[in-house]
TrEMBL record:
Its main location: membrane. Coiled coil: none annotated. The lineage of its organism: Eukaryota, Metazoa, Spiralia, Lophotrochozoa, Mollusca. GO terms for cellular component: autophagosome; phagophore assembly site membrane. The keyword Transmembrane applies. InterPro entries: Autophagy-rel_prot_9 (IPR007241). Belongs to the ATG9 family. Residues 538-560, 787-818 are annotated as: Disordered. Phospholipid scramblase involved in autophagy. Cycles between the preautophagosomal structure/phagophore assembly site (PAS) and the cytoplasmic vesicle pool and supplies membrane for the growing autophagosome. Lipid scramblase activity plays a key role in preautophagosomal structure/phagophore assembly by distributing the phospholipids that arrive through ATG2 from the cytoplasmic to the luminal leaflet of the bilayer, thereby driving autophagosomal membrane expansion. It is found in: Preautophagosomal structure membrane. Keywords: Autophagy, Lipid transport, Membrane, Transmembrane, Transmembrane helix, Transport. This is Autophagy-related protein 9. It is a multi-pass membrane protein. One of its GO terms (biological process) is reticulophagy.
Length: 818
């Protein structure tokens, strides 16, 4: 039995004394009225929101109510999904049993006086119904009716729940439905936390935190993300000719969720409690056999219903995409984030709208990167096919314009349609002639957007191996459709041959990485974002007090810095949340180091001299005083003023409309952000000069709101941190690396009489041509760059961008500051 804290925090008051005149039972035992407590519900409560039993379901419905637009939108969506299901089934039967195709296609002489009408092509009602008489159709009809009744009951149940949640929004949260689009989830969550204090929705804790709500909404998703991260569940498979292939279909995810979380005899007894037997190592053998048996029966059931599910998938995708083939055939050449990427790239405790927003921001950078990989053979073939297909299509179009009877010729319309589709497909294979191929730069853009990238991709962005590996995350839509069509056939074999042998690993994972939290229940320990237990020293700064002691074993560490990334992301989207001491130390250390690096790079200039990084740029190039790697130079592309000076009073701005998908609070304190703190430190150091008083005033007022563009820039702070953490990890294994960007700046950017070049040289342990007569020793095979003498003032000096050049092997001194 689960052990809960007996010191329950709730609202209790002494029971008032009885009236002396009131009759009492003589046999009643005396009661010490001062020791008797009774829970008092608020008198102004208008709904039953006290001591909610299943808070996981409740908070999930509260979240979905906000994200899906309220009661009417959710009800209409559920009803239309049921109608869509009925339509596909009924329309498929109608087309197969109620249409006379011999009459429709003129296979028989029916009527020569006029064109065939719909009434003539449709069979009578009695003939349509006769098709249901076969035993096969009777079985299908029974299955269909059972599914319809189940879905109908689910819709009715959900609608009743929607009314309950609507009442909670209106009466408890004081949020009318019309205001949902004008409120972020952070605002709704803040009100939920306040309502908890009044209504005591959770009886085990008087006050809830933001993390408690996230844990309940994302309990099972956190488990799946963690199991994918440590490779407990096999998601990649070795296939002949294809090599490693990641396959995660919707049907496979559904089966895994049913087996592990909510299905019959699942390890979880309910939404919040793992069965006690799974918490003991003595039951491992027994539980492994039970889980293997459960996976076997699920796989067998999928195999039995495979033909029916395959037929249904075919109908669904045909009705959904058939029209697009004619209207927009290029849709199949577009890409989408794969189901595997939605597990690999997701942070712990990241809600759907936060995750989707991050993926949407990364869509264009990823598309730009993958579009630089083209096949010359495919381009040549596509251009010639377009020429021939275009020629024939042009002739047919001209003949159609001259005489529309050409369309009545057999197969002419079909040929025009096929040629149009073929030309669209070929056009998608031909790259834009103005495309600039910069794979490393584009991959850095991708890393900033998606936050996760394997270590061996750095420096290999131009290789086909990296391209193929990235295609598993960002796949063609046609590949997704094929995977889903074949899912009924593939899923049973993955369950039986791949997942079933991992049953023992799954049992171990549930036992080792499940912790009980008061007021929340059993959660995945990775979701606590504990850098001491699940952190990785490669993604953390320094040692000593800043590093976990003792270091967690390899089996306890999350891969790819997911613990550190998740902690940073959650704290930024929920700035009011207070992490534990280890997490707080990690966040503050990382932010301080980034701030120092940015400040140092901006202090490499003195009055009257050409600056290395213009102080007018609120987000300068991130040039740490350590040898930097392939990620750092990306920061130089993020330019623009953080705080724009304005005249007159600063208006109090509030975003309105379509803000429900925004991450974090709608208004964030300027000085609480990394960029705001950097700006404040610059102001205090007098780096902005006399003309920046308004900027200084802005950065020192934490409650002042900023314009929407500035808010968007500040929201990208997580991207900066992610890129910096990748750079930090890269430094651990490449300590002697100096990027070509910094080498070029050291050599080219010191005008006569300036000390900026020598400052940078000393910071990196090198000496520029302006400070001494010799250059730093280059690696073998590299020529020494001669000293360049330029005419003109420092303002006319140009900076050479060598970010795409392969870096020379430079030597730096051991005295470079850390």
């Amino acid at each position: 039995m689960a052990q809960y804290d007996t010191n329950i925090e709730t609202v209790y008051q002494p029971l008032g004394s009885y009236d002396e005149d009131e009759e009492t039972d003589e046999n009643e035992l005396p009661v010490n009225e001062q020791d008797l407590l009774i829970h008092v519900c608020p008198e102004n409560s208008k709904g039953n929101w006290n001591h909610i039993e299943d808070l996981d379901d409740f908070f999930t419905r509260v979240y979905n109510y906000h994200q899906r637009g309220g009661y009417i939108c959710m009800t209409m969506e559920d009803v239309f999904q049921l109608v869509q299901f009925l339509f596909i089934a009924v329309f498929a039967y109608f087309m197969s049993h109620c249409v006379s195709y011999t009459v429709l296609f003129h296979d028989i002489e029916y009527n020569k006086s006029h064109k065939v009408t719909l009434d003539e092509a449709i069979l009578p009602m009695d003939q349509c119904i006769d098709g249901l008489g076969s035993s096969f159709m009777v079985i299908l009809t029974i299955i269909f009716l059972i599914v319809v009744l189940i879905r109908l009951a689910k819709v009715i149940f959900n609608i009743s729940k929607y009314l309950y949640i609507r009442s909670f929004y209106v009466n408890a949260l004081k949020i009318p439905t019309g205001e949902l689009a004008n409120m972020t989830w952070h605002e709704v969550q803040t009100r939920v936390l306040e309502v908890q204090k009044e209504h005591q929705m959770c009886v085990h804790k008087r006050e809830l935190t933001q993390l408690d709500i996230y844990h309940r909404i994302l309990r099972f998703k956190n488990y799946m993300v963690a199991m994918a991260n440590v490779n407990t569940i096999p998601l990649k498979h070795d296939l002949p000719l294809l090599g490693k292939y990641a396959y995660v279909s919707i049907a496979l995810k559904f089966n895994l969720d049913a087996i592990l979380f909510w299905g019959p005899w699942a390890p979880f007894e309910n939404n919040w409690h793992l069965r006690n037997e799974y918490k003991s190592a003595r039951n491992k053998a027994k539980l492994t056999r039970q889980l293997e048996s459960r996976i076997f029966w699920f796989g067998l059931a999928n195999l039995v219903f495979c033909p029916l599910i395959f037929f249904w998938n075919g109908l669904y995708f045909f009705f959904r995409y058939a029209e697009l083939i004619k209207r927009q055939p290029s849709i199949f050449g577009s890409r989408r984030w794969s189901n595997y990427s939605r597990l690999y790239l997701r942070h712990f405790n990241e809600l759907d709208h936060e995750f989707n927003a991050r993926l949407n921001k990364g869509y264009q950078p990823v598309s730009d990167y993958l579009n630089i990989f083209t096949s010359n053979i495919a381009v040549v073939i596509a251009r010639n096919v377009m020429f021939f297909a275009g020629s024939v299509l042009a002739v047919l179009v001209i003949l159609t314009v001259v005489d529309e009877d050409v369309l009545n010729v057999e197969h002419v319309l079909t040929i025009i349609t096929v040629l149009g589709v073929l030309m669209t497909v070929c056009k998608g294979l031909i790259p834009d002639e103005h495309t600039v191929h910069s794979p490393e730069l584009l991959l850095r853009n991708v890393a900033m957007a998606i936050h996760y990238m394997p270590e061996n991709w750095a420096g290999n962005a131009h290789t086909i191996n990296v391209r193929n590996a990235f295609s598993t995350l960002f796949q063609f839509k046609i590949v997704y459709i094929v995977e889903e069509l074949l899912s009924p056939i593939i899923t049973p074999f993955i369950l039986l041959l791949c997942v079933r042998p991992r049953a023992a690993n799954i049992v171990d994972f549930l036992r080792q990485f499940t912790v009980e939290v008061v007021g929340v229940g059993d959660i995945c320990s990775f979701a606590q974002m504990d850098v001491r237990r699940h952190g990785n020293a490669k993604w953390q700064l320094g040692g000593g007090e800043n590093a976990p002691t003792p270091a967690p074993p390899k089996s306890q560490q999350a891969e790819n810095g997911k613990t550190e990334m998740s902690l940073m992301h959650f704290q930024m989207t929920n700035p009011e949340w207070k992490p534990d001491s280890d997490g707080n130390t990690f966040i503050n250390t990382l932010r301080s180091q980034i701030q120092r690096d940015i400040s140092r790079s901006m202090m490499m200039t003195t009055d009257g001299q050409h600056s290395l990084v213009s102080p007018s740029l609120a987000l300068p190039s991130l040039v740490p005083p350590l040898p930097v790697g392939p990620y750092t130079s990306m920061m130089s592309s993020l330019q623009g003023p953080l705080f724009t000076p304005t005249s007159g009073p600063i208006p109090s701005l509030r975003l309105r409309g379509a803000v429900s998908q925004l991450e974090g609070p709608p208004v964030r304190a300027v000085s609480s952000s990394l960029l705001g703190s950097v700006q404040s430190s610059m102001d205090s150091g007098g780096m902005l000069g006399d003309g920046a008083s308004m900027q200084t005033s802005l950065s020192r007022h934490a409650v002042r709101q900023v314009d929407e563009c500035t808010r968007e820039l500040m929201s990208n702070e997580m991207n900066i941190n992610a890129l910096y953490m990748h750079e930090l990890r890269w430094r651990r294994g490449n300590s002697a690396y100096l990027s070509t960007d910094d080498y070029a700046r050291a050599v080219w950017q010191s005008p006569e009489g300036s000390t900026a070049g020598s400052t940078l040289g000393s910071a990196y342990g090198i000496t520029t041509a302006h400070s001494t007569s010799t250059l730093p020793a280059l690696g073998q095979g590299h020529e020494v760059m001669p000293e360049i003498q330029e005419e003109g003032s420092a303002d006319d000096e140009r900076e050479v961008d060598t970010s795409m050049m392969s870096p020379p092997s430079l030597h730096h001194t051991d005295s470079a500051p850390l």
